[in-house]
Each structure stands twice: as C-alpha cells, then as structure tokens.
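Target protein
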Amino acid sequence: MDIQLKFSFILTVLTLMLMLSMAAGCTPTVQVAASDKPIEINLNVKIEHEIRIKVDKEIDDLFSDDDVF
C-alpha cells in the first residue's frame, strides 16, 4: 500500500472515532431519583353550608291545623 493511502485511512478512522465520541458526549441524560423527604399534602378545607326552607304562609297554616290529620 502506498504511504499516502495508509495516512489517509488512519486519518479517516481517527476522524470517525472523534466524531463518534463527540456525538456520544452530546446525548442528553435524564436522571430520576426519589426524594428523601416524604410527600406532604396540606388539606385545609373549610366547608360551610346553610339550608333555608321557605314555606308559604298558607301551607304553614295548613300544617298547623290539627283537623287536617
């Protein structure tokens, strides 16, 4: 083989190795790790309700009448 051909082959191989190592260095890495602290869920809930019943005066009088029942 010609010396220039050997040099060109070695240079091509070194260039490819350099490009592959650079491409491997650029790949992103994702790390998932569990937290050492427990998960805290703070539920400060205040529930208020109000029930209003409106009754017509006639119906109220009807129910207060003892003769109906």
In short: The radius of gyration is 43 Å.
